[in-house]
Write a structure and sequence with these properties.
Belongs to the LysR transcriptional regulatory family. This is LysR family transcriptional regulator. Keywords: DNA-binding, Transcription, Transcription regulation. By secondary structure, the protein is of the alpha/beta class. The protein folds into 3 domains: 73 residues, Arc Repressor Mutant, subunit A (Orthogonal Bundle); 103 residues, D-Maltodextrin-Binding Protein, domain 2, CATH 3.40.190.10; 90 residues, Periplasmic binding protein-like II (D-Maltodextrin-Binding Protein, domain 2, 3-Layer(aba) Sandwich), CATH 3.40.190. Helix content is 37%, strand content 22%. The strands form 4 sheets. It has a 5-stranded mixed β-sheet with strand order 4-3-5-12-6, with helices on both faces. A 3-stranded antiparallel β-sheet has the order 10-7-11. A two-stranded antiparallel sheet has the order 1-2. The longest helix is centred in the first third of the chain and has 28 residues. It is globular and about 55 Å long.
């Protein structure tokens, strides 16, 4: 495995965890054909089939199960080593900013607009699962994270960015011509659910009086989500679109006017070796978010 790259192992882990090439490609912000080619190249490098491919599902071969356990360890060790070197050297390597898929448009907007200002230390965006953001911070794999989970107050600092709940619906929906919606408007609407319950705006603590609407279809990947909405089969609760990002074709995204903004935090380790760079990104992010009409911070 001398020629196998850490990047290839990350790709393999994503496919193994998502059990689907489309979802893994969305998580990695790459195209599905490119991901498939990368996995085939990895299989050639290791000399073994790693995946059992079937329509709608991807499983692991015995060799794949062995590699998955080793790959997770290697990727974690590489991330921790690079973070330690970066902190010790204090060099100009990029700040790594991570977020889950739901916050990917905002993450991309913050990183791109920050880098447009030609900062001394540029930033790079990394998309992961909603559940792994805190682990990325603790291990040093990320310098900052956009997250909804409360960070460890003993080890982390954060700023609060308030995220208005929006509703994405079909452009042909009877409510699509409104400028905003209320929870009462959704009373009879099927509201989309995500398999595994990790759709961030459907977190139970955000809805102490119960979810709006009625239970709608359950989906397992982003392509399916957009298709269901475009066809008018359900609406979905989502974050606001970020600046510079167009609506998904055939959809409209409207603010839920009677719902209080929900917390979205930008967090970082308190004992960070490059506080000026972190502070610069935090200042930029607060100003950028505050300037967006869909979000207040």
């Amino acid at each position: 495995m001398s020629d196998v790259e850490i990047r290839q192992l990350r790709y393999f882990i994503a496919v193994a965890e998502e059990r689907n090439f489309t979802r893994a490609a969305e998580r990695l912000l790459m195209t599905q054909p490119a991901l498939s080619r990368a996995i085939r190249a990895l299989e050639r490098e290791v000399g073994a089939e790693l995946l059992v491919r079937s329509p709608g599902d991807v499983g692991l071969t015995p060799a794949g199960r062995v590699l998955l356990a080793e790959a997770r360890t290697l990727v974690a060790q590489a991330g921790n080593a690079l973070a330690r070197v970066r902190r010790t050297g204090g060099g100009p390597s990029a700040l790594t900013v991570t977020a889950s898929g739901c916050s990917a448009p905002l993450l991309d907007d913050l990183v791109r607009s920050f880098n447009d200002g030609d900062p001394a230390v540029p930033a790079e965006a990394v998309v992961g699962n909603a559940a792994d953001q805190l682990d990325r911070l603790r291990s040093g794999a990320a310098d900052l994270a956009l997250l909804r989970a409360a960070p460890d107050p003993a080890a982390m600092d954060c700023v609060l960015l308030l995220d208005q709940v929006h509703v994405m619906l079909s452009a042909s929906h009877r409510l699509a011509g409104r400028s905003s919606l209320t929870t009462a408007d959704l009373a009879d609407e099927p509201v989309l659910r995500w398999q595994g319950g990790n759709l961030q705006m459907m977190t139970p603590e955000l809805w102490p009086e119960g979810f709006p609407g009625r239970p709608g279809p359950v989906v397992s990947d982003g392509m399916q989500l957009f298709a269901v909405v475009r066809l008018g089969q359900a609406v979905v609760l989502c974050p606001p679109p970020a600046q510079g990002f167009d609506e998904q074709p055939g959809t409209v995204t409207l603010p839920l006017a009677d719902k209080e903004p929900v917390p979205l935090r930008l967090a970082w380790l308190r004992e960070h070796a490059r506080p000026p760079a972190v502070r610069a990104f935090v200042r930029h992010s607060r100003a950028r978010v505050a300037a967006q009409p869909a979000i207040s911070g």
